Amino acid sequence: MNPKGAVSPDQSQVSAPYRWYVVAVLFVAYAFSAIDARILTLLVVPLKASMQLSDFQISLLQGFAFALLYSVAALPVGRMVDGSPRRPRLIVWGIILWSAMTMCCGLAKNFSMLFLARVGVGVGEATLSPSAYSLISDYFPKDKRALAISFYAIGYPIGGGLALILGGILLNYFTTTDMSGWGLFSGFEPWQLVFIAVGAPGIFIAILVASIRDPGRRESGGIGKDAVVPIRQVIAYLKHRWKLYSILMGVTALSGLLSIGTSLWYPTFLIRTYGMSAMDVGFYYGTLMLVCGTVGTLAGGWLSGVLQRRGTVDSNLRIMFVATCVKALPLVVGPLMPTATLALTFMAVGTLVGQASQGVILTAIQDVTPNRLRGQVTALTLLAVNLIGLGFGSSIIAAFTDFVFGDEQALRYSIALTGAIFLPIMAFMLAKGMALYRAEIANLDRANAPLENNS
Questions:
Q1: Mean pLDDT of the 436-448 span
Q2: How far is CA 93 from each of CA 6, 203, 205, 381, rounded to the nearest angstrom?
Q3: Which of 160, 169, 361, 436 has the fewest Cβ atoms within 10 angstroms?
Q4: In sequence order, what DSSP letters do the residues of 366-388 get, joined into one string?
């Protein structure tokens, strides 16, 4: 039984091309969310000069500003996702909000105004992934789910790469162009115009997302089949499985801490250490993220599907464990290289291997979670990623630079030290979680079997 007004086509009537169309639309939305979120990375130097900001203040704008109200918004958004018959509509309103707030960043006159605008971007983006993962999980079976989610997940590295490439082009254009005849925009600084330019396309992305339909619910595990689950039942379910979810969410959050912190500070490290220009960093580092991030993420999703079809039920966690171990060397050694070429080469290897784990770890969480809890569990996971990853990833590196080494030129050592501390912790957690993960997959499969037989 579907809630009144839901558009829930029979799964057998949904064609494969339409399923992938949905993934493609969500991918585009995710890419643009990354552009709006990550464009600040390339604007650090002009922002610091314009507003006289410290590295620590920049880290708050890049990280904590996103995490602040996301912490409050994440769980209500997750419950809305789990109870809504029209999940795409939630995404549409989120896109409108984060795009408007990105443009407001370009109108900011001081640190406080820019901080509040960045908070707004984070709140708007909080609607996307809980809804997207829930939708994709309902459209795809397990042996195809990791590839579909990985395809969605590459939106972020692609968007992050485009943010650097397009940001570099836009910043160079607005810096070298006479803006005196641009009327309302004639008094704006180049970095302000970049924010406005990347936020403007949001309305078109919102219209595109509005074209997709909700597929209805599947894999309920007998929980909340026709309605949102009471909060006390959600708490009881997660409390009973706290060890497994602590490991899955913890590893995801620490992975976010490393990948977000490193990627946010790597462009600045390249500029400070090797004297590269912002435009060159935008092109080379942006291309690296675009290519290696895309290939790595899709490779991880493809490999998971192959292993799933061969009966390896814990394939997602296995891939994550191997990727964590292998990427340790390039991520720790890369920033210590004597040339920019070597530093970028090591980062390319680390990104290629590291991104292989991004789609699969989030798929792993979907696979052990009943449908009516997926939005809330995803929101909790992304809450952890935002608080730990965005909130501390950038700030930990900045804190090492400012308070431990006391030298802006020591940024390279801060990046290397962060990887050396957290990668072994992640590998240990994943090794401990394998057995718990396999057991929970078996439990959920048994719970779903009667429902599938009666459908």
A1: 86
A2: 18, 10, 11, 22
A3: 169
A4: HHTS-HHHHHHHHHHHHHHIIII
Scanning the structure block, which residue is given the tokens 């080469």?
Answer: 345
What span, in angstroms and rounded, lies between the C-alpha atoms of 262 and 257? 8
Query: What Å distances lie between residue 140 and 378, 390, 450, CA to CA?
Result: 17, 30, 19
Cα three-residue angle 120-126-128, rounded to 5 degrees? 125
Distance of CA 414 to the CA centre of its chain: 23
Residue pLDDT, tens place only, 317-363: 999 999 999 999 999 999 999 999 999 999 999 999 988 887 798 88
> What Cα–Cα distance (Å) separates residue 191 from each residue in 57, 137, 167, 276, 410?
17, 39, 9, 19, 26
Domain ranges, ordered by start, for the chain: 16-443
CA-nearest of 296, 16, 320 to 154 is 296
Give the span between the Cα atoms of 169 and 393, in whole angstroms.
Answer: 27
In whole angstroms, give the CA distance from residue 91 to residue 6.
16
Domain 16-443 is found in CATH 1.20.1250.20: yes
Q: Report DSSP state, residue 62.
A: I
Q: Which amino acid is at 219?
A: E
DSSP string, 305-317: HHHHHTT-TTHHH
Determine the residue type at 4. Answer: K
- Average pLDDT, stretch 257-281? 88
What is the reported pTM? Answer: 0.74
Distance of CA 171 to the CA centre of its chain: 24
List CB contacts of 139: < 8 A, sequence separation 6 or more: 14, 19, 22, 23, 148, 215
Q: At 250, phi and psi to the nearest 5?
A: -65, -45
Q: Find, among 362, 390, 391, the residue nearest to 378 by Cα.
A: 362
